Amino acid sequence: MAAMTLHVPGLDPLLLEGEDGQAWHFGRSHQNDVVIADGALSRRHARIVMHRGIPFLEDLDSRNGTFINGERVHAPRPLRGGDEVHLGSVHIRVTGGTLGPEVRFRDESGSSPQSSVVLPIDEAWRTWLPSGASDRMGAVIRDFQDLSLELIKDVPPGTLLDHVLDHLWNQLHPWRAAILLSGPGGSLKPVASRASEGHAPISLSTHLVESALARRQAVLFRDVEAGTASPSLLLSGISTAIVAPLEFEGAILGLLYLDAKAPRAPFTEQDLGLASTFAHLASAKLEQVRMQEEAQRRRSLDQELDLARHIQQGLLPGLPPEIPGYELHGNNLPSRQVSGDLFGWWLREDGRWLLALADVSGKGLGPGLLMASLSAFLEAFGERDFAPDDLAFHLSRSLARHTDGKRFVTAFLLLFEPATGEVTYTNAGHNPGYLVSADGTFMALESQGLPLAMLPGQPYGSGSFRLEPGDLLALYTDGITEAAAPDGEEYGEDRLQAFLRASLTLGLDAIDAGLMADLEAHAKGAPFTDDRTILLLRRTASSSG
């Protein structure tokens, strides 16, 4: 029987099993079985239903669509292990496997095998050593076993490196031994060392070390003689030495050094192989620790970004308000966990509505924080009786105090009067807004000043128009027009205009969903490098001035 598990970011894995008709609903609303607090999801976005032991994914007319492996779901689709599901901007993995035979227990306490071998657990794993093996072979294998276990355990790297030297010391009987790790700029820093006589410093030949590291080879010196060795080796009386890089998948992590002097016999090729193998085991542990630390840093960063994303989603408006005679809709799809785009609407005491759409320059957490500041300023200034150009002026000065001069914000601000359809607006360095008349005529609402916070103190211009019945106002960020196909071709303003003309009679939710699907088709699987945000306002044909 197939067993499948759904992995939703930030939630416990969900096992998909049950009788026919068993269902799980997904969306932003707390009435769902799986609640995902992401603004890209609809309140009731999708559901999974069991049918004949197979989970089927169904879209519930969501705003931004449901996708399996990049293909939009238009009818119930069966899920398989390995599928990649996207609900809006949320990425969900499906894993699965086949369950084996059932395992049961049976009471047979009265029976016993005719013959058995009983060994203590700490001895059992050593008994596989073949008979006839030499004492040294057995000791080497036991050392390998010990180090292999330390690779699995959570043993600190320093402790492991000490143990590596201990094992080599007992096996090879050198005069001195040391392990050095690579530091900044390629420098080598000693982390463990041993010596038979006192604690005199170990002087390593720079030529010897550099040649071993440059060639990425373990080097064995059998007989150190005058004319073939460095003065430091001759003066110390060393007759044989091993230098083995700590290398893992092409990266040099450090160096192992062993030497000896008479009467000990020169190191052999077997000694070189043993030292190199122990060095490789140590390298594997060092790389394992590095990867674990990197993974932990990434998890911590992901947790911080998820928290920032959830906070940011709370700054975006929820469902649009009911404005008699009008339709209003907004949507934000971030390219990363934190978006630098903003849209919103605020009702003033005089009955007019303030609408805003903005795009912070750059990507990532920094722009997201500046976006949060802009949201706070809009909340504060939105209640004042500022015209759009005055509002842009005050926002620019306030934001400039919170930037380093390298960040700015393009914005489109407008006030509209529902009773008359009159609109006044200011475009602060943003993409042109589009006023699409019921007959398909386009009017581009071009920029009337610099982006906010670029040159604070500069005045802004403004414009005005009247929304007639059937007119559509479309505002968007450049993440839509600059969405690129694999060959680099951008979606562009011409294609956006053509789409809006063709979709003019659709509901605003359908226009948004259709546009995002058209962007996906244009991108052909290429990742979106910028946030996609849209704000739509339409005066319905039944309204009157």
C-alpha Rg (nearest Å): 34 Å
Mean pLDDT: 81
Number of strands: 26
Fraction in beta strands: 25-35%
Quick description:
The protein is α+β, with helices and mostly antiparallel strands. The protein contains 11 helices and 26 strands.
Structural notes for this entry:
With 545 residues, this protein is of the alpha+beta class. It is built from eleven helices and 26 strands. The protein has helices at residues 121-124, 135-152, 157-172, 206-215, 231-236, 269-315, 365-381, 388-400, 478-481, 492-502, 508-523, and strands spanning 2-7, 14-16, 23-27, 34-35, 46-51, 54-59, 66-68, 71-72, 77-78, 84-87, 90-98, 176-182, 188-195, 219-221, 240-248, 251-260, 326-333, 341-347, 353-360, 409-417, 422-428, 433-436, 442-445, 463-466, 472-476, 532-539. The strands form five sheets. Strands 2-1-11-10-7-8 form a six-stranded antiparallel beta sheet, with no helix packed on it. Strands 4-3-5-6-9 form a five-stranded mixed beta sheet, with no helix packed on it. The radius of gyration is 34 Å and the shape is elongated. The two termini are 64 Å apart.
